[in-house]
Amino acid sequence: DVLHVLHYQLEGSEQEALDAYSGGMISRNAYYFEQGKISDREFKHFEELVMSYAGSITVRSFPRFAARISTMDIKNGIAEYRKINGYSPDVVIVDSMDLLTDATRRQWGAEPERSKRIAVANDIEDRDWLNNERNVLTEYNCSEAKGLARPCTHLISLNQSSAERKECLMRLHVAKSRFFRKGDTIKIATDYDNEVFYDSQRTLNLNRD
């Protein structure tokens, strides 16, 4: 499918975000092309690979930390994107939501109760529970601490034991979904060393096993 992505980078530069996307597209760590460590032969191969892709990625960055970017800025940016391109983005990514404020640009306080819940959750983290691969984080695990679940159409938790981290594996759990069945857990392979969250080939081999 052809997808047009609008990415808001609320911490860090546009170049950092684009380098990460570029690394993901060619399955190589961004360090190699940032430092010019890719041979001409490899570069030509990667160029042909990228040219075969369809769609687009547009990055808007706000590198100054805590610049109080609001939900209204996001909505206005989407409207501007639509005006320039003649179509709306298929996917909007905000990295990350916790750096957004609301449309009033209000400077929110410490929210003592929320802070207390997060602190308690950190204190009682049960590594043995997390390392049991039969366990997954559900809607219940995050709804009280961070208020994330209620406004979400879909909520997918990322679950990884210490053993899975060493093997570059992860379990995605569909904790909430309004339009299809929830409760499924999907095991995938990752390749963070080469800027790839989802390693499709290794994942297919996992499913064959």
Short structural description:
This protein is of the alpha/beta class. Helix content is 41%, strand content 20%.
Structure in words:
Helix content is 41%, strand content 20%. The chain has 209 residues and is of the alpha/beta class. The strands form 3 sheets. The protein has a 3-stranded parallel beta sheet with strand order 2-1-4, with helices on both faces. Strands 6-7-8 form a 3-stranded antiparallel beta sheet. A hairpin with a 7-residue loop joins strand 7 and strand 8 (185-189). It starts with a strand and ends with a helix.
Furnish the topology, listing elements before pairings:
Blueprint: E1 4-9, H1 14-26, H2 30-34, H3 40-51, E2 56-61, E3 69-70, H4 71-85, E4 91-95, E5 100-101, H5 112-123, H6 127-131, H7 139-146, E6 154-159, H8 162-167, E7 169-177, E8 185-189, H9 200-208
Parallel strand pairs: 1-2, 1-4, 3-5
Antiparallel strand pairs: 6-7, 7-8
Question: Looking at the structure, what is the overall shape?
Answer: globular
Strand segment count: 8
Strand residues, percent? 15-25%
Low-confidence stretches: none
Largest sheet: 3 strands, parallel
Radius of gyration, in angstroms, nearest whole number: 20 Å
Give the helix level as a range of percent: 40-55%
From the structure provided, what is the oligomeric state, counting identical versus distinct chains?
Answer: single chain
Helical element count?
9
Mean pLDDT: 80
Q: Which sequence of SSEs, written as H and E, runs from N to C?
A: EHHHEEHEEHHHEHEEH
Strand order of the largest sheet: 2-1-4
